[in-house]
């Protein structure tokens, strides 16, 4: 005969007696084996006890799925104790994802119909907890019948079950809508609570129901009034407030009904004022009701005086010593900040104080609210506060705070310099937590603020000299130093303290960044390119830079190695091009492809007017070319960038890009033009004007060779009038083999923002038939379409 | 709606776990662990509200908790519930437990977890608040317990007898009754067929 099974309590004792996790597992496994055997044998007497034990170990995290069928058997048993455990098991072990759950539908149906209240209660409870859509559909009529039962116990449960059913099967709203009106007349608080919940659910799901229930507003007002004005009753009161749960539910329903509806709002006004002024605020229950009242007042069409009262109540709560009250006040203000911005602004100082709270929940709320309160008039003060917070805030809030500050700075920056300063400070304090595009944004910002180049590069240099660990900061600083290194050496800048910097110091700093183990590969790329650029910005000899470049030619990082090799080649074989290649970059379009980091990779040589760079004679010949075109006088700017005005940039930011990036849609093709022919070597130009960018003209120069001898060392250079911008991309090669061999192509990009007549001068140098040839000529007969 | 109600002790051992939305067993255990992790980090004098962990639905949901001596009572709710209201609900729940168990302590919850489930089922149903009147709840629980006891039938008879004897107020019976040799004349009784 098998040993009598353990009682639940005894099993619990045994489990608690286990000293280690392994022991506990052993005890439980042994017992589960017994339970499984007992289930197999089908012992009806002790089944409920076995299942109770199984549910216990299930709570501790052990598998209990083999008890699912037993739940069914227990539910079908006539005994209450069996049903009790069976239904509990169903709620804990079965859910709508297992097919087995449908099997209890019939049992539930029987139990709902058989009239013993506790049993009906069990069935309803289980149905409302784990009832799936199919079950709800099957049992809807049963539940509807129970709504009209005399027993309040069953009715209140039926009402809440109806709410669950509507959530699972929205069509059932039709069945459960009609009884609501009658249910509202009940005196029993449990039924009322359930009914209000049901009506709320119906109204949230269907505007038609919302309209229908607006007519019960007076009734709701009456119920609430009775609750508020009735004397102290022990029945439902919590710390002296009569049934605060029911009050809160009614207030929430009133909020939904009164929103955007003048008439209903009017009916509620008096009552809301009464509740707001008479509710006891010394205990939590009263405050719960008061908060709900405030939210309702702000959401409906309430009288102006009432709104002021509501916001003042919130303001008072912000100063309350109870942290929970402060938390809920901050949450409520956050909800209101969109609709009643000015009212909430009044409490800005208090909100900012809450940033200093040691409690993480409160400071998080305060941060969200502070960020929402930033506007153009308080941006400087708020940013200062927020930056102070950023230094000391808990790590999980850092990222949000940093990006919040950057966003606010972007939207409301009073001056560019302030903007740059702010971003700089954020990068220094919380560099590792900023978003990835912060670097790109800052570079773009600095690039566009021409007058601040000197200032920026000095600030960044000082910041970098202090600390090379914050990667975004290092990246931006490296880029800046590379671009504007010459400005760094000039001693004076009015806006900042004079800083004497030697070339060697700068190079040393960049090398330090390169070698530091804290630098990410991307950062090292930045630093490396910056070093290279400085070879043209600085006047000293380039030996140090050359050395570094050649060392990194064998670097393990492939990216860096490739660059090093390229730069090395630039030093050795293409030294004449180095200056042109490393020219200052044009301003990049915000939405455009990110050409910021490595424009050199495409080897764009920009030949615009530049301060004379002391390089080899080749370049000076180019300058001569430009001079020849001098008759088109227009004072050229240094970079001639398309500098977008701040509004334009903001417009770009605020307008989500909606036009598809269809590049290079062309207008009717412009005819090709042959511009040069000599002894079999021909140069043809073909033109493309993308309709996307009207000022842009793309010229492809193609050199073909029909002669008997190869053309070697072919170089084509171009010049345009000062008002134009020209970019020459790398040619496909420098040799055109004889007899129609593979031609050389080269792309020229010409920007003509002023739509001035295009003039183009070309200079060709090459070796042909054993002779070196140089030709300079202006292209005539350029089609009108190229520049109109 | 209330998504889950969890009770665990200061070491994270679950004493009650009720979920009102379908989660797999693994997820349930993970949620319990995650919630314990978040709640145990909290100081003593901070507010009782927390953002929900990732598993329970992230920042749309809140954890509203109360710490009583060795137990944490945590209600995980979504944004439609009033935070202060739930705080009160936890209080009412604990007071009801107190009334049903007479000065409830952690051991009561450990050994009578099924009863705690029954009490909770009278207060919160399907994630919604059902009844908050303590007296009503206690009356109902008593009625159900009586129904269970009356049903116990023959199987319960030994248990009932034992408890009856235990509760009997017997006067002290002397152990050794020294009765002298008694010779009782037994009448000749007719034998029964």
Query: What is the succession of H and E elements of chain B?
Result: EEHEEEHHHEEHH
Whole-number mean pLDDT of chain A: 81
What's the total number of strands of chain B? 7
Strand content of chain B: 15-25%
Shape of chain A: elongated
Strand content of chain A: 5-15%
Organism (chain B): Chrysochloris asiatica (Cape golden mole)
Domain AP complex mu/sigma subunit (chain B): 1-147
Pfam family, one (chain B): Clat_adaptor_s
Keywords (chain B): Cytoplasmic vesicle, Golgi apparatus, Membrane, Protein transport, Transport
Quick synopsis:
Chain A: Belongs to the adaptor complexes large subunit family. The complex is a heterodimer of chains A (788) and B (193). Chain A is an alpha+beta fold and 788 residues long.
Structure description:
By secondary structure, chain A is an alpha+beta fold. In chain A, the strands form three sheets. Chain A has a six-stranded antiparallel sheet. Chain A has a three-stranded antiparallel sheet with strand order 7-10-11, covered by helices on one side. A two-stranded antiparallel sheet of chain A has the order 1-2. In chain A, strand 1 and strand 2 (241-242) form a beta hairpin. In chain A, helix 9 (152-168) packs parallel to helix 12 (189-205), helix 23 packs parallel to helix 25 (416-430) and helix 27 crosses helix 28. The longest helix of chain A has 21 residues, at 21-41. In chain A, 40% of the residues are buried. With 193 residues, chain B is an alpha+beta fold. Chain B has six helices and seven strands. In chain B, the strands form two sheets. Chain B has a five-stranded antiparallel sheet with strand order 2-1-5-4-3, sandwiched between helices. In chain B, strands 6-7 form a two-stranded antiparallel ribbon. In chain B, a hairpin with a 2-residue loop joins strand 4 (62-68) and strand 5 (71-77). The chains are: A alpha+beta (788), B alpha+beta (193). At the A-B interface, helix 1, helix 3, helix 5, helix 7 and helix 9 of A face strand 2, strand 3, helix 2, helix 4 and strand 7 of B.
């Amino acid at each position: 005969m098998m040993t009598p099974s353990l009682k639940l309590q005894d099993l619990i004792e045994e489990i608690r007696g286990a000293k280690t996790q392994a022991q506990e597992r052993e005890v439980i496994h042994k017992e589960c084996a017994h339970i499984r055997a007992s289930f197999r044998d089908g012992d009806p007497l002790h089944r409920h006890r076995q299942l109770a034990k199984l549910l216990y170990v299930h709570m501790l995290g052990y598998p209990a799925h083999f008890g699912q069928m037993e739940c069914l058997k227990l539910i079908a048993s006539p005994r209450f104790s069996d049903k009790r455990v069976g239904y509990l098991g169903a709620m804990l072990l079965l859910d709508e994802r297992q097919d087995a759950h449908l099997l209890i539908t019939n049992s539930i149906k029987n139990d709902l119909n058989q009239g013993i209240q506790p049993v009906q209660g069990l069935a309803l409870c289980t149905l409302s907890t784990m009832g799936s859509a199919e079950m709800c559909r099957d049992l809807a009529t049963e539940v509807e019948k129970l709504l009209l039962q005399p027993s309040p116990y069953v009715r209140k449960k039926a009402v809440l079950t109806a709410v669950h059913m509507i959530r699972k099967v929205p069509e059932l709203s039709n069945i459960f809508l009609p009884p609501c009106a009658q249910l509202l007349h009940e005196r029993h608080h449990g039924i009322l609570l359930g009914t209000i919940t049901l009506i709320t659910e119906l109204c949230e799901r269907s505007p038609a129901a919302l309209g229908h229930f607006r007519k019960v507003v007076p009734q709701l007002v009456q119920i609430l009034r009775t609750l508020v004005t009735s004397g102290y009753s022990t029945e439902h009161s919590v710390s002296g407030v009569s049934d605060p749960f029911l009050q809160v539910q009614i207030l929430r329903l009133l909020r939904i009904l009164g929103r955007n509806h003048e008439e209903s709002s009017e009916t509620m006004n008096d009552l809301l004022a009464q509740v707001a002024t008479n509710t006891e605020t010394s205990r939590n229950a009263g405050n719960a009701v008061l908060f709900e009242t405030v939210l309702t007042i702000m959401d409906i069409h309430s009288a102006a005086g009432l709104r002021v009262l509501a916001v003042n109540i919130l303001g008072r709560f912000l100063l309350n010593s109870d942290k929970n009250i402060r938390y809920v006040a901050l949450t409520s203000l956050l909800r209101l900040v969109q609709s009643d911005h000015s009212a909430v602004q009044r409490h800005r100082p208090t909100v900012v104080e809450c940033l200093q709270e040691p409690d993480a929940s409160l400071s998080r709320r305060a941060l969200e609210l502070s960020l929402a309160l930033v506007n153009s008039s308080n941006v400087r003060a708020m940013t200062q506060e927020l930056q102070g917070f950023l230094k000391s805030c808990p790590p999980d809030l850092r990222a949000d705070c940093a990006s919040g500050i950057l966003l606010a700075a972007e939207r409301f920056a009073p001056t560019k310099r302030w903007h740059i300063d702010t971003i700089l400070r954020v990068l220094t304090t919380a560099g590792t937590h900023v978003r990835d595009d912060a670097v790109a944004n800052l570079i773009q910002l600095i690039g566009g603020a021409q007058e601040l180049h000197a200032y920026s590069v000095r600030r960044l240099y000082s910041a970098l000299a202090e600390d090379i660990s914050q990667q975004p900061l290092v990246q931006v600083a490296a880029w800046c130093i590379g671009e504007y290194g010459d400005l760094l050496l000039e001693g004076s800048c009015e806006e900042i303290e004079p800083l004497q910097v030697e070339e060697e110091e700068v190079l040393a700093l960049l090398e330090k960044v390169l070698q530091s183990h804290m630098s990410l590969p991307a950062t090292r790329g930045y630093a490396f390119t910056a070093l290279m650029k400085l070879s043209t910005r600085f006047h000293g000899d380039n030996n140090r830079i050359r050395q570094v470049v050649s060392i990194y030619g064998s670097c393990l990082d492939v990216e860096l190695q490739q660059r090093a090799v390229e730069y090395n080649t630039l030093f050795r074989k293409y030294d004449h091009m180095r200056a042109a290649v490393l020219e200052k970059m044009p301003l990049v379009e915000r939405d455009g492809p990110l050409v910021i980091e490595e424009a050199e990779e495409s080897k764009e040589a920009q030949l615009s007017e530049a301060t004379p760079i002391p390089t080899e004679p080749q370049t000076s010949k180019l300058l001569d070319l430009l001079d020849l075109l001098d008759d088109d006088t227009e004072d050229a700017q240094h970079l001639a960038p398309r500098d977008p005005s701040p509004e334009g940039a903001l417009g770009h930011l605020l307008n989500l890009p909606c036009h598809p990036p269809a590049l290079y849609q062309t207008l009717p093709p412009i005819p090709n033009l042959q511009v040069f022919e000599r002894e079999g070597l021909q140069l043809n130009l073909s033109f493309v004007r993308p309709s996307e960018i009207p000022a842009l003209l793309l010229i492809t120069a193609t050199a073909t060779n029909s002669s008997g001898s190869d053309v070697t060392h072919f170089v084509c250079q171009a010049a345009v009038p000062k008002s134009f911008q020209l970019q020459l991309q790398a040619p496909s090669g420098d040799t055109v083999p004889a007899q129609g061999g593979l031609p050389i192509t080269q792309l020229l990009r010409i920007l003509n923002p002023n739509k001035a007549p295009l003039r183009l001068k070309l200079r060709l140098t090459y070796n042909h038939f054993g002779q070196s040839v140089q030709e300079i000529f202006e292209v005539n007969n350029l089609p009108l379409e190229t520049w109109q | 709606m209330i998504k889950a109600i969890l009770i665990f002790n200061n070491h994270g051992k679950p004493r009650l776990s009720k979920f009102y939305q379908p989660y797999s067993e693994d997820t349930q255990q993970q949620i319990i662990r995650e919630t314990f992790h978040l709640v145990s980090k909290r100081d003593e004098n901070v507010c009782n509200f927390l953002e929900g962990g990732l598993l329970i639905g992230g920042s749309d949901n809140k954890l509203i908790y109360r710490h009583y001596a060795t137990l944490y009572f945590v209600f995980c709710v979504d944004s439609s519930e009033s935070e202060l209201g739930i705080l009160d609900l936890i209080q009412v729940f604990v007071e009801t437990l107190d009334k049903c168990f007479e000065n409830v302590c952690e051991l009561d919850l450990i050994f009578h977890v099924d009863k705690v489930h029954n009490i909770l089922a009278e207060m919160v149903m399907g994630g919604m608040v059902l009844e908050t009147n303590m007296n009503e709840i206690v009356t109902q629980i008593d009625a159900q317990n009586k129904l269970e006891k009356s049903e116990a039938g023959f199987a319960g008879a030994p248990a009932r007898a034992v408890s009856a004897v235990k509760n009997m107020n017997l006067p002290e019976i002397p152990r050794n009754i020294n009765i002298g040799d008694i010779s009782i004349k037994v009448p000749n009784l007719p034998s029964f067929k």
